[in-house]
Amino acid sequence: MLVAEIQTAMLTLASEQQVRPKRRSKFIRIPKNIRRFIDEETKSLIDGPRAQEVFIESRGGEVLIFRGPLDHVIKLKEKIDNIIKRVQEQVVERRLRFALVESDFLRANNYKVALRMEEETNTVIRYINVDSNDEKTNFVKIIFQNSRGQTIIVEIGDISKVEHVDAIVNGANGSLEHAGGVAKAIAKAAGPALDQECKELISNNGDLPIPVGRAV
């Protein structure tokens, strides 16, 4: 009786292994300069295949790994490959119609500002708009919109000439001496009043340096 049960169990297991689809892993590398553009288009595809037993893993936003039945994995990979190819072509086509400053910004090696904004806000940038240089201040304004719907405006230019702002945050050393770099340029533009106020802040702190990261 026991032998018969074992034989039946082995036959059942063999039958299940025959009908079980082959499972494989595939991966796709997503170029950094188009990652933000394909995020929305691939979302529906990535959410859908879960019903087809396809497990999808994202590594650093640059690699998508698919694990599951071979036929489903292959079909999904082909669809996303086609999206990436189409977006790459559109980026090149759009770049040809952009002004010089926008064209330069969209080059693959000039995404440092956008990538930094993504890292610091823990989001994906989905929209970028670059305004032309302001004739008076020579500023370049870059407008980002992230996956949370937040709008971040970055202006590249001489910070001492920026207009229409409530405050400028100056990253000085602990003694607030503004010895060099951007800190010195801001202090110079602000005039003697800033220097005097900094001395008073240090004096009120017992002549001790201001702790790192503290705003005064």
TrEMBL record:
Domain Macro, by residue range, is 139-216
Q: Which Pfam families match?
A: Macro
What SUPFAM superfamilies does UniProt report for this protein, alphabetically? Macro domain-like (SSF52949)
Q: What is this protein called?
A: Macro domain-containing protein
- What organism does the record attribute this protein to? Rotaria socialis
